Amino acid sequence: MELYGDERLDYLLAKKLKIIQSPSVFNFSLDAVLLANFAWVPIQKGSLLDLCTGNAVIPLLLSLRSKGKITGVEIQERIYRMGVRSVDINELSDRIRLIHGDIKEMPSVLGHHAFDVVTCNPPYFQTPGTSEINPNQHLAIARHEILCTLEDVVRVSSQLVKQGGKVAFVHRPGRLLDIIMLMRKYKIEPKRLRFVYPKVGKEANMLLVEGIKDGNPDLKILPPLIVYNDQNEYTEELRGILYGDE
Length: 246
What we know:
Elements: E1 8-12, E2 17-21, H1 30-38, E3 47-51, H2 57-62, E4 69-74, H3 77-89, E5 96-100, H4 106-110, E6 115-120, H5 137-143, H6 150-160, E7 161-171, H7 176-185, E8 188-197, E9 206-213, E10 220-221, E11 225-226, H8 236-243
Parallel strand pairs: 3-4, 3-6, 4-5, 6-7, 8-10, 8-11
Antiparallel strand pairs: 1-2, 7-9, 8-9
Helix pairs in contact: 6-7
């Protein structure tokens, strides 16, 4: 498998998978791993969709939890091609399909209400002034709402998920009210919410939320997830998420 520029081939967590990364283009981060672990998935069958898929880290991780068919959508061609090669390296092209395209066009491309599960790790930051955006175009698009907004993400997820299907997002706590309001606006009823904290006593810096299309109101606030213990090592729960039994 040929690598380009500063690309490298990394083991993905417990060395069950490999993934192509590039520090100047795209590296996956903890939020993607936590979302892939948090989202409900069908074990045997089903259709799963990951929006803003990057280098396909979430589809790759979901393939360890579900035997269903997984689709990923990425708008940046360079990152999309990294994902395609990662899928090929892991011999998962029969189960994972990647699409190079704009998520806003996917309801017409993939069909309305076609998926049992939709996940998305979207750009976190609303677009500031030009001087504040990362000059690296790949990183700017991945981090800022340049090509899609939070409302785009929630609306499209609602259009693509089946009635009764589940939608899961990872985001920053500062956008919690926006996320909940948009989910309800587009008929995704929030059902599970979990905050992630870097350490005990620190403010949450991440949230995980899952809803059901046309579900009944009944939001459960799950126990907090702590990343580091007092020795600045991963907590036992976090290690279990990252490495399983290894």
